[in-house]
Amino acid sequence: MNRSYLLLLVLFASPVVAQDDLLDLLGEEETGPTYTSASFKATRVVNGHSLENTAHGVLDFRIGHRFGFLNGGANQFFGLDDATIRLGLDYGITDRLMVGVGRSSYQKTVDGFTKYRVLKQCDDGCTMPITLAVVAGSSINTTRTVDFWPDTSRQYFFTHRMAYSFQLIVGRKFSERLTLQLNPGVVHRNLVASTNDPNDVIHISGAGRMKLSKRVALNAEYFYVLPDQLPEGYRNSFSLGFDIETGGHVFQLHVTNSTGMFEKAFITETVGNWADGDIHFGFNISRVFTLHTPKEPVE
Amino acid sequence: MTMKPIILLAIVLGMAPHSLTAQVRFATRNGHIAFFSATPIEDIEAHNRKVTSVWDASSGAIEFAVLIKAFEFEKARMQEHFNENYMDSNKYPKANFKGKLSGVSPEQLKAAGTYPVTVAGDLTIHGVTKAVSVPGTVMVDASGSVKATSEFNVDPEDHDIAIPSVVRKNIAETIKVTVELSLDPM
Hints:
The structure holds two protein chains of two kinds. By secondary structure, chain A is mainly beta. Helices cover 7% and strands 43% of the residues of chain A. Chain A has a single domain (47-290), classed as Beta Barrel (Porin), CATH 2.40.160.40. Chain A has three helices and 15 strands. Chain B is α+β, with helices and mostly antiparallel strands. Chain B has one domain (24-185): Lipocalin. Helix content of chain B is 16%, strand content 49%. Chain B has two helices and nine strands. An eight-stranded antiparallel β-barrel of chain B has the order 1-2-3-5-6-7-8-9. The interface between A and B is large, with 38 and 45 residues.
């Protein structure tokens, strides 16, 4: 009988176990994977693409502006007398796919691109350590034919005006503050100045950002063109800048030795020499408009 | 042979306390919490439909866990800023509430009715805990399903959520929060 009482006691006692944390009763939460966000503040580092995309349904109006070279001296008001501009519109078709067009005063060029995010770095619930994106772009020099092709003894083709660019962007947000990316690529020019110049220019480039505060980040990018591809006098593009974020705007203020703001221009046609003070002060302004909300709140 | 009826009795009695002390518990994994910021410049709202909550009606204890990144905004950039610049979601991934709901008894839940209740306890947002007491409503319909709702205000300042001067006029000093739970017995 003693054993039976004991048994009864044990069975009565068991249900009265204190629950410290009610939520533990529900067990582990099943949350979907969380992807890394805000690796860069904008879809461009300075001139080149960052690993970021415009979100689905978001239109990004971008104004790119470069003053003249700082070494223009007081007479040129240290470059502020001159201006090169690119106006652009980018749109996020999905969270992975974005397209954009732009018009530059530099060589009166119209450019367009498509960027697709193949892999997304993951914070939680999956293991992907990097973000991988591909960017394909093309540009058309729209200078009047009489100016573009003054030597009428040679045959003119419209395709002479075109150039293409392909880039792979591999990047990782290492911490809240630091993001680094490597972006090798190739620029194809249908027309080059001399037979010695290659039509395809291969570059290995890198960029990074360091967040200085919640709304300010320091960006740097360098486009390293593999040797013996560009004629004498052409240089690699190097830019340094700050991103300042205020609500729907991102202001990018920077210094760069490149004048143009599309791939063919800043990768293959940069002439500025940092050491000589051939530095442009410039800015990009990005303003986003939400045209379409993919996730309609269900009431 | 003599042990068998005793064991049977023990099992039956052992099960009894469950119903006798009546731990009436309810839970949900897809509760809805929304917040609204209204200023003359712009209105901002966000919805989270993945709120977890457990309510023990017998003791009154109630808890919430809210994943900050699960708040959805109309504008993607807003959502990114909310997580990155205001809530520090990587550092403080969840908001929590732990407290007591008073004003309705487990017996009342057996019949349809609407009961005004008070929920009091500790609200933790952005790593800062504050004691709150807010009104709410518990509704039981004819089919026995239980719904709980509440509406209250939270000041970002109370939870050390800094709002820079440039957007001061865009974000309200007091944010209206609404809670809607469809609770299932567990």
